Amino acid sequence: MSGRQDGAWARGEQSSSCSLYRRLLGPAWAQLPAAVAEMHDVADTGERVARGWVDVERGRGALARLAATLAGFPDAADAGEIEMRFEARDGIEIWTRRFGDKVFRSRQSAGRGRNADLLAEDLGPFRILMSLALEDGRLKLAVRGWQFLGLPLPLALAPDGEVYEEERDGRFHFHVEVMAPLIGPIVRYTGWLVPVETPDRVQLPAMPSSSESSALR
After folding, report:
1. Cβ neighbours of residue 128 under 8 Å, at least 6 residues apart?
2. 211 inside domain
3. Is residue 172 part of a domain?
4. In whole angstroms, what separates CA 114 from the centre of its chain?
5. So what's the pLDDT on residue 92?
6. Which among 55, 157, 167, 198 counts the fewest CB atoms within 10 Å?
7. Distance (Å, rounded) from C-alpha 118 to C-alpha 123?
8. pLDDT band at 198 (very low <50, low <70, confident <90, very high)
9. Residue 85, domain extent
10. Which CATH number goes with the domain that contains 44?
11. Domain for residue 191, yes or no?
12. Predicted confidence (pLDDT) per residue in 9-68, tens digit
C-alpha cells in the first residue's frame, strides 16, 4: 500500500465505510508510512490478521504486577510470537491480541461529543481517550482523558507512557508503554507485525530479543 489518498480524502471528505483511523486522522492519513496505513486500513465490516514478534517487559513492583494482571497485559514470559486480529463493525474495531496462549482484547471507537476527535479504547470498565498525531514519521498516541463506567476521572491519575507506531525496513513496528502515577512502569511491549492472508497459524522465524530476562526500572 502506498499511503496515497484518493480524491475524496485529498479534499478532506470522510466515508462511514472507511476505517476508524482514516476517519480520525482525516487529511493527515495521507502522510502515514505505508506499513502503518496498511495495518489500520480495515474498512467497516472488514477484518485483518497480522502476525509477528513481541518483546515484553513488566514493572517490578507488586502494584505494577497487580495492575498488569487485572488489565490483562502480557507477562514477560509471553514474549515471542504475537497474533493480532482487527475486526471492524459499525464504526467500532475489536482488537484481539494473542501472546502465546494469552489473549488480550480491547474495543476501539471514536469518542463522543467534545471527544469526537479522539480515539476511545475500552478495557473492561475503563475507557481511555487518546489523540492521534503524526510526528517524525511515527503515529503517536497520547492519553487525553479516561473514564470509569462512563464517569470522567482526574487526568492527573490517568495511565500514561510512550505509545507509537512506525515503519522500519518496510515493516510495521509498535511500541506500547504503560505507566501510572503512584505505581510507576506497569508494562512495555514492543515488536513488529506483518499482515497475513489466512487465519491459520503459521510458523514464524525467531527474532533476537534484547530484554528476554529484563524488567522495567
Report:
1. 120, 121, 122, 143, 145, 146, 158, 159
2. no
3. yes
4. 22
5. 92
6. 198
7. 16
8. low
9. 7-196
10. 2.40.128
11. yes
12. 333 344 556 889 999 999 999 999 999 999 999 877 788 999 999 999 888 888 888 888
Domain count, the chain: 1
Q: How far apart are CA 153 and CA 79, in angstroms?
A: 32
- By the 8 A CB rule, do 180 and 47 touch? no
- Tell me the CA distances in angstroms from 112 to 42, 102, 148, one per residue in order: 21, 31, 15
Would you state the cell numbers that stand for residue 124, as one nine-digit string? Answer: 473492561
DSSP of the chain, one letter per residue?
------HHHHTT---TTS-HHHHHHGGGGGGS-HHHHHHH---TT-EEEEEEEEEEEE-SSHHHHHHHHHHTPPPGGG-EEEEEEEEEETTEEEEEEEETTEEEEEEEEE--GGGTTSEEEEETTEEEEEEEEEETTEEEEEEEEEEETTEE--GGGS-B--EEEEEETTEEEEEEEEEETTTEEEEEEEEEEEEES-SS---------S-TT----
Cell of 137: 514519521
Residue 60 grid coordinates: 517490578
| C-alpha closest to that of 78 among 58, 100, 60, 98 | 100
How many residues comprise the chain? 217
